[in-house]
Amino acid sequence: MSDPALLVLASLADGDKHGYAMMQDIEAFAGIRLGPGTLYGAITRLDQRGWIRAVKPGSRRQPYRITAEGRQYLKEQLTMLDQVVRTGSRRLNEA
Amino acid sequence: MVRWAAKLFPQAWRCRYGPEFEALLEDLAPSWRDVSDVVGRALTLRGRALIESKLPAWSGASLMSAALHLRLPIIMAVIAHAMVLSLIMVASSAYVAPIPWNRPAAPSPPPPPLPPAEITDSRVFRDVPEVYSSLPLRLSGNGGTLFTSVVEGVGIYFPPLPDMGAIDRRRNPIRRVWPGHALERSITRRVVPQYPAGTRAREVSSVFLEYLIGTDGSVKVLRTSGPALFANAARAALERWEYQPMRFEDDIIEVVSRVEVRFDGALANAAAQ
After folding, report:
1. Is residue B117 over pLDDT 50?
2. A35: nearest CA in chain B?
3. Which domain holds residue B150?
4. In chain A, which residue's Cα lies nearest the Cα of B25?
5. Distance between CA atoms of A57 and A68, rounded to whole angstroms?
6. Is B193 within a domain?
7. Residue B221: its pLDDT value, please?
8. B25: which chain A residues are within 8 Å (Cβ-Cβ)?
9. Which domains are delineated in chain A?
10. Lowest mean pLDDT: which of A49-63, B50-64, B71-85, B192-206?
11. CB A74, CB A21: distance < 8 Å
């Protein structure tokens, strides 16, 4: 899973984080280091779609919070990924 | 470097996310990979913003009109080229002959040359065996005489012949009138008349001679005009001339021509002294 938007949503699922915190969190739980441009590209798209929002507008280290719509989208994506993971794992075991 | 790259982001994006993005860069220790990442993302957003700025112009138009809007320059260029080519074809069709696709294999042979014109002037050929022509022998030169040579006061000139080219086919061999200067390439022997001894006049005396070149190239004087003393001197010299046999239409013919001999006493006296 390398979709930056999904990684950002997963990072914000357990609480608000600013950009640098998101980069460290994602690197910790997914082993992927997002570049600053890629991270803020994903943040821009998620913000425009309303799946995350700025917690303290105007702050230099702006924390973001996942919205209800973002959380719903994340659940759908994780369910689909879980289906892919379980199906792939079962087929691996059967082979 | 990465801060310079951050300036590539669109203006609107920098107004919204610029400060926090700079704060993120301050927290990072940016590598060259981060710089390229920022540049790539900035250019992507800039291109996307450019496309979105153009979309409102097309939003009110239909898909077909948008397609036409895109292809309008191409369509106009094609129409312009077609019009120019049509004008060239129409203009050139009036001046350029159509290409003969069924071109004959070989060009048609040239028409055969026309036979030479024959002069049948009754004054030219008379049934006089020795005198060839009834035309006046003393013809006005009018400056058309051909100077041949001057030796010790004697000059030989070929006057223009009004009956040049006349042919008498009733004779065997054929007899033809031809100017003396045209016979110069065939002459093999020429004797210049001698100024008569004892007659050192100061003026110029001319004699005209009509002569016949036989089939063997020998010369026979037919008639003369002028002072007898000078005419006899000219005749004596002229009858020693020799030509190559004359040919016409693959036949050896006789040729009649005329010559003027001028005797200049002043020059002869000067040469004698």
Report:
1. no
2. B34
3. 146-272
4. A36
5. 19
6. yes
7. 92
8. 36
9. 4-94 (1.10.10.10)
10. B50-64
11. no
* DSSP at B9: S
B41 part of a folded domain: yes
Tokens (6 digits) for B190: 């020429």
Using the beta-carbon criterion (under 8 Å), do A37 and B30 form an inter-chain contact?
A: no
Question: Which of B32, B60, B88 is at the close of a domain?
Answer: B60
Section B228-237 average pLDDT: 90
Rounded distance, CA B224 to CA B258, Å?
A: 10
The DSSP result for A28-80, as a single string, is HHH-----HHHHHHHHHHHHHHTSEEESSTT-SS--EEE-HHHHHHHHHHHHH
Q: How many domains does chain B have?
A: 2
| Interval A69-78: pLDDT, tens | 999 999 999 9
Burial of B116 (0-12, 13-18, 19+ CB in 10 A): exposed
Q: What is the spatial distance between Cα B58 and Cα B41, in angstroms, rounded to a whole number?
A: 26
Look up the CATH number of the domain holding residue B163: 3.30.2420.10
pLDDT at position A9, please? Answer: 94
Instruction: Tell me the C-alpha distance between B62 and B69, whole Å.
Output: 10
Q: Identify the contact set of chain B against chain A, taking CB-CB distances under 8 A.
A: 2, 13, 17, 19-25, 27-28, 30, 33-34, 37-42, 44-45
Q: How confident is the model at residue B116 (pLDDT cuts 50, 70, 90)?
A: very low
Average pLDDT over residues B2-12: 83
- Residue carrying the six token digits 């996310």: B17
Q: Give the pLDDT confidence score for residue B127 in this predicted structure.
A: 43
Q: What would the mean pLDDT of B148-176 be, rounded to a whole number? A: 78
Q: Which residue has the tokens 């910790």?
A: A28
Is the ipTM of this structure higher than 0.90?
no
Peptide bond into B173 cis (omega under 30): yes
Q: Which segment of B16-25, B140-149, B194-203 scores lowest on mean pLDDT? A: B140-149
